[in-house]
């Protein structure tokens, strides 16, 4: 179950790096606007907020990747703590989105299911 948790966490981290790129680097691009359903004017008006939010996603991915690295390097308690913090925060943020924005539930599931499953698999493994 530990390997399952690490694979799921790695996939979740990758998704969050992509979200970072879309929000922080590509927010006003046609692709990002299509994905997030915003007009060019809306994207320009919210660009600073999206830039900041994207970095939250990147930092969650970094914490999760660090947890994976620590688990693989040997200090399991350190790695597990980082995985619980990183992937657990991803899942919690997705839950907030799911509950607060019914029209964005699909996005919440896309960004929250893998980290939730990773956390559950890690809990079982430990």
From TrEMBL:
Matches recorded under InterPro entries: DUF1304
Transmembrane regions listed in the UniProt entry: 56-73, 80-101
Keywords: Membrane, Transmembrane, Transmembrane helix
Name of this chain's protein: Epimerase
Organism in which the protein naturally occurs: Dietzia natronolimnaea
């Amino acid at each position: 179950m530990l390997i399952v948790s690490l694979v799921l966490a790695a996939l979740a981290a990758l998704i969050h790096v992509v979200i970072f790129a879309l929000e922080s680097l590509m927010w006003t691009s046609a692709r990002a606007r299509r994905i997030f359903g915003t007009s060019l004017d809306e994207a320009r008006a919210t660009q600073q907020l999206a830039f900041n939010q994207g970095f939250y996603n990147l930092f969650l991915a970094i914490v999760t990747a660090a947890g994976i690295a620590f688990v693989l390097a040997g200090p399991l308690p350190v790695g597990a703590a980082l995985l619980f913090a990183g992937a657990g925060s991803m899942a919690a943020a997705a839950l907030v989105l799911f509950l607060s924005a019914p029209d964005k539930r699909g996005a919440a599931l896309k960004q929250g299911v893998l980290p939730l499953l990773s956390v559950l698999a890690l809990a079982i493994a430990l």
